Amino acid sequence: MLQNVDKFGNEPALSIKDRNGNWQTDTWNDFYQCVIDISKSLLACNIGIDEKISIYSYNRREWYSCYAAAQYINSVAVGIYHTCSSSEVEWIVGNSDSKIVFVGNNPNDNGETDKMPNYRLLRILDKLDKIEYVVLMEGVEKLEHTKIITWEEFISKGSTINDSNVKERNESINLESTASLIYTSGTTGNPKGVELTYDNWQF
């Protein structure tokens, strides 16, 4: 990622459709700054080396940024399909020992709360005692729970963290350390987390 920022800083990195169906594009500089902001907030939330964060959402800008930020600070990212049921989410989040879950949307929910990731997670949240924060991405309805915070509240936590703190954590990365847990479909049993090291990744 840093090489791409250096070489292609003002070139397109991500293009995402907004609510009106219009394409919005972030440059590599934009993407990098978003990753740094999230990294600072993760450090402020005491996410340590090799600790896990989960992302339960459809594809969107924050999904990629959170994934990259977790890896940037030598933590581990866990992706969860936006169509996963409450029981499937409970298993993956619990099995991975995730401390934070980022929650986005399901564009095919048709207004049905049974299909919305925020409602599905709320049903089993009290069973996940290792979860410290549930961070709702922009536009996601905030439900009442002491662990649930908005995207703005999460980002504001990083205001006390210096760039040097992020840099120090980034420099602690060992290429043989786990960067990501990718869970299998669980066809013949509970999903299993497949470890990918930093040496397997390139942004």
Furnish the topology, listing elements before pairings.
Elements (H helix, E strand, L loop, with lengths): L1 H7 L3 E6 L5 E5 H17 L7 E5 L4 H12 L3 E5 L5 H11 L1 E6 L13 H8 L8 E4 L11 E3 H6 L6 H8 L7 E6 L9 E5 L6
Parallel strand pairs: 3-4, 3-5, 4-8, 5-6, 6-7
Antiparallel strand pairs: 1-2, 8-9
Helix pairs in contact: 2-3, 4-5
Structural notes for this entry:
One of its GO terms (molecular function) is long-chain fatty acid-CoA ligase activity. Keywords: ATP-binding, Nucleotide-binding. Pfam families: AMP-binding. It comes from marine metagenome. This protein has 203 residues and is an alpha/beta fold.
Percentage of β-strand residues: 15-25%
Q: Average pLDDT value?
A: 94
- Enter the CATH topology name: Rossmann fold
Order of strands across the main sheet: 7-6-5-3-4-8-9
